[in-house]
Amino acid sequence: MSIPIHLPGGEYHVTGFDPASSVAEVISDLECDLGMRPARESGYTLLMEDPVNRTVLVPLSHSAKLCDVIAKWETNLHPTSVTIPQVIGLHYERFLHLPCPGRSPIECKLSALQLHSAALGGVHGMETELATCLGAMIAQATQGNCPYHNINSAGARTSIVKYIPENVRTRYKDEPATGKLAAEFIEIWQKLRDVPAATLYQKYCTTLDRWKYSKSTLFRGLYSRPKDGLKTPVCVNVTEKKLTI
After folding, report:
1. Which of 41, 54, 65 is nearest to 90 (CA)?
2. Distance (Å, rounded) from C-alpha 132 to C-alpha 128?
3. Euclidean distance between CA atoms 158 and 182, whole angstroms
4. For residue 57, what are the CA distances in angstroms to 36, 47, 51?
């Protein structure tokens, strides 16, 4: 049997498994196939899309049998989805941000793409200078040399939506400010011409390691107040040394 595993950045890897395979065994096979360090060192694990809300990823117990996970997922599908063939979505992602010495090139790539995706969603605030620098690295690594020679072109301006976090772009809503942000981004991207993708992914991770939020994992949830049962959104920030709500 085989199943596709989604990786950060929109790629996926098809892995084979025995019906009796545990999640831990599937993760071990992935580590061998991709060239990743063990989960206890890298923080990467296997997650599944929630059967009701597929935008939510749920980490899997390493001791569970993958066939049991799939069967339970199909049983818990939303009633409106039962009539349409559905396939479980499995994701291999970094779940906990552990110390990173000795990471492999593929781990740098996956970590950079996953962190970039999280940054675009504005999970944590980021300074404009850092955001444009990191965005340009990802642009060069994934798209190659900058195709825009005119920083005022429509393409140059729209590119910042793909590479600059939303909470940074909102600081530059008016036209002159948007143009200035796009110009700074394109200028950095042009300076990275011909730099290999592997080098950029490594530099991205090294740069982000110095960011104050780089070694934390943010979990979102709802808190039900004891007095009236009103649900309030909360965020739990987990680091190696502390947990903050």
Report:
1. 54
2. 6
3. 8
4. 21, 6, 10
Read off the pTM: 0.76
> DSSP letters of 71-139?
HHHHHT--GGGTTS-----EEEEE-S----TT--HHHHHHHHHHHHHHHHTTSS---HHHHHHHHHHHH
Residue-level pLDDT, tens digit, the chain, 245 residues: 788 999 998 888 998 888 788 999 999 999 999 999 888 888 899 999 988 887 888 899 999 999 899 888 888 876 655 555 578 889 999 887 655 667 788 988 998 898 888 788 766 667 888 889 999 999 999 999 998 877 677 777 778 888 988 888 887 777 676 778 888 899 999 999 999 999 999 999 888 777 766 666 666 667 777 777 777 777 666 666 666 77
Beta bridge partners of 47: 59, 91
Q: What residue type is assigned to position 116 of the chain?
A: H
6 DSSP β-pair partners: 12, 91
SS (H, E, C) 27-75: HHHHHHHHCCCCHHHHCEEEEEECCCCCCCEEECCCCCEHHHHHHHHHH
The pair of three-digit structure tokens given for residue 69, joined into one six-digit string: 């996970």
| Exposure string over 13-22, b if 16+ CB within 10 A, otherwise e | eebebeeebb
Strand 90-94, strand 2-6: pairing: parallel
Sheet with 231-238: strands ordered across? 217-224, 231-238, 243-244
CA dihedral 81, 83, 84, 85 (to 10 degrees): 100
